[in-house]
């Protein structure tokens, strides 16, 4: 037992000594009733005005402490939920089914095949991204990034045909870069609902373009007006490539055949560089300020690389007319499905 009477300000007083009260200069220990544990007997405190105030203050502090504990628990729960959502978004591609990754790899292979054989890669890749639960705008931006990465292989494979065309490429490259930047900006400014209504018409138009066989024996343009139209056309195709891009290669090829006096293989190499640049510019814009599902872009890109690699070998064994008709027909069906979905949703 410690003495109940201590000296005021005694530095040697035990830290758990009873509270001191100053009464007419005397230092008396707190009454026994006040030193009774609160959760035991509270009658002594309740009988005194100061005791009731102490109890009220203690109750308020207890309520505040309980509130703090509840808030802390909610913060922890919110943090866990956010972490789980981020993990789910990464593992499942922003809400896609568990087999979504496999679907995107297969769709990427199909997109690479159709892209290398007929120039309509988005026929497979875009609807596959929609099937994983992505919105039209996010699906388009993700698709552009995957196509931009996979187009690197096409550009590298065209190096032999690009020899002696550096000046030509450098003259046209700024036009498609400008077009790709404008197309990406238009995507970022287009509301998702409006984009969903526009895309079916773009897919239908691209499918019809596949049925058009541009003349490869046409005389190259030489007039000033013809060159001006070529410049405008290249910029316009660059804008379309950055905005959506389905069958942009077919249109660009038709323009370059008329603008460049060269073989189809060399013209195709220039086309690969120009469209690859416009896609790259749009992809950078989407990656920085857009909405991209990276977990969906990775498997799609892997499939595209495989399809781009195998596509030329398969195309050599298929009749080109039947190939174009089949892909164009599938594109028109897809356009009708996308339009119905956009109107009814």
Automatic annotation (TrEMBL):
GO terms for cellular component: plasma membrane. The chain crosses the membrane at residues 102-126, 138-157, 169-188, 194-212, 232-261, 281-310, 322-343. It is a multi-pass membrane protein. InterPro entries: TM_pro_TauE-like (IPR002781), TSUP (IPR052017). The keyword Protease does not apply. Signal peptide: none annotated. Keywords: Cell membrane, Membrane, Transmembrane, Transmembrane helix, Transport. It is found in: Cell membrane. Pfam families: TauE (PF01925). Belongs to the 4-toluene sulfonate uptake permease (TSUP) (TC 2.A.102) family. This is Probable membrane transporter protein.
